[in-house]
C-alpha cells in the first residue's frame, strides 16, 4: 500500500474514473486532474514517516509548509522547508520527504494536478536541486498563497457541478499570482510589447507557417525592432524563444498525456513527424518516444 494513501488527510480529487474514490484507501491510482489536501504530521503520530517515491508521479505536486519543518532529500542532497516555503515536484521527480527529526511537527498543504497545456511557463520554477522547484513569497503574501490553496481544498469538498472547474481555476489563480509577484520584482520590467509578443507566439505554437512580421504587426512594431527588444530583454532571438517554447510544450504533452506523437508534433507546429522527432532529439537528447517512456511507471 502506497503511504500516500495514509498521508492524504482532507484530500479531494477530480477527473477521470478511479478504481475507488477515496485517496485514503488502497487502490487509488491518482489518475485524476486534481487532488488537494492538508497533511498534519506530528512526532510519533500515524503519519510520522517519510514518503518515498523514487520514480515520482505522473503529475505535478505543489507543497506549502504551514507549520513546523519538513526535510526533502534528493540524491544525497537535502533541503529543510519552513513555514512559507513552496515546493513544486514535476512529473518523474524523486519524492523523499517527511518531518524534520528536530521539529515536533510538519503541516503542509498540497495539490497534485495535471496542468492545463498553457500553464507551462508558470511551472518553470527555480530549483533547489535536480528538478524540484522552490518559491518563497514575501512575508506579506504568504497568507494569501496559503488561503488560495485552502480554497482549492474547500472547493473540492463542495458537491456543486462546477467544483472541479472552480478548484482548477483557483490553482491557476495561485500560479498567476506567483508570476505577478515575480514580474513586479523584475527591474527593469519586461516591455509590454515583448510580453504581448510572447503570449501571441505561445497562443500560436501550432501554426506550421510562422512569420516574425506577423508577430511584429500584432504588437505594432517593425520586425527589426521586435527582434532587437527580444534580444535585449530575453537574451535570445524570436525564433530561438519560439523553438524553446515548442519543445517545452511538447515535453509537457508527452509527459502528461497519451496524445499520439504525431499529434503532439502538430500541436506545436510540426506537420512532419520525422522532422519533429529529429528536432526534439537534438534539443533534449532523446526521441519523443524515449522521453515519454522515461515518465511511464
TrEMBL record:
Q: Which GO terms describe its molecular function?
A: DNA-binding transcription factor activity; sequence-specific DNA binding
User: Does this entry carry the keyword Transcription?
Assistant: yes
Keyword Transcription regulation assigned: yes
Keywords assigned: Activator, DNA-binding, Transcription, Transcription regulation
What are the residue boundaries of the HTH araC/xylS-type domain, all occurrences included?
Answer: 195-294
Q: Which SMART domains match?
A: HTH_ARAC (SM00342)
Q: Report the Gene3D superfamilies cross-referenced here.
A: Homeodomain-like, Regulatory protein AraC
This protein's name: Arabinose operon regulatory protein
Amino acid at each position: 500500500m502506497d503511504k500516500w494513501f495514509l498521508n492524504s488527510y482532507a484530500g479531494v480529487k477530480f477527473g477521470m474514473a478511479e478504481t475507488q474514490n477515496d485517496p485514503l484507501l488502497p487502490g487509488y491510482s491518482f489518475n485524476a486532474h486534481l487532488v488537494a489536501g492538508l497533511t498534519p504530521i506530528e512526532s510519533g503520530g500515524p503519519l510520522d514517516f517519510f514518503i518515498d517515491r523514487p520514480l515520482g508521479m505522473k503529475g505535478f505536486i505543489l507543497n506549502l509548509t504551514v507549520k513546523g519543518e519538513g526535510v526533502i532529500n534528493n540524491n544525497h542532497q537535502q533541503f529543510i522547508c519552513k513555514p512559507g516555503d513552496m515546493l513544486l515536484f514535476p512529473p518523474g521527480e524523486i519524492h523523499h520527504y517527511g518531518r524534520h527529526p528536530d521539529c515536533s511537527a510538519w503541516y503542509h498543504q498540497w495539490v497534485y494536478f495535471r496542468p492545463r497545456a498553457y500553464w507551462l511557463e508558470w511551472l518553470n520554477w527555480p530549483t533547489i536541486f535536480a528538478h524540484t522547484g522552490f518559491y518563497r513569497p514575501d512575508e506579506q503574501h504568504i497568507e494569501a498563497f496559503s488561503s488560495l490553496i485552502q480554497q482549492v481544498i474547500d472547493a473540492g469538498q463542495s458537491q456543486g457541478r462546477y467544483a472541479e472547474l472552480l478548484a482548477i481555476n483557483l490553482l491557476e489563480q495561485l500560479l498567476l499570482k506567483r508570476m505577478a509577484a515575480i514580474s513586479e520584482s523584475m527591474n527593469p520590467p519586461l516591455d509590454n510589447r515583448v510580453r504581448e509578443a510572447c503570449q501571441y507566439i505561445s497562443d500560436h505554437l501550432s501554426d506550421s507557417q510562422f512569420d516574425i512580421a506577423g508577430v511584429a504587426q500584432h504588437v505594432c512594431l517593425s520586425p527589426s525592432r521586435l527582434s532587437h527588444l527580444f534580444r535585449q530583454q530575453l537574451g535570445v532571438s524570436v525564433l530561438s524563444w519560439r523553438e524553446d517554447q515548442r519543445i517545452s510544450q511538447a515535453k509537457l504533452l508527452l509527459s502528461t498525456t497519451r496524445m499520439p506523437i504525431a499529434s503532439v508534433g502538430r500541436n506545436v507546429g510540426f506537420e512532419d513527424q520525422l522532422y519533429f522527432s529529429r528536432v526534439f532529439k537534438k534539443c533534449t537528447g532523446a526521441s519523443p518516444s524515449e522521453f515519454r517512456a522515461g515518465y511511464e511507471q
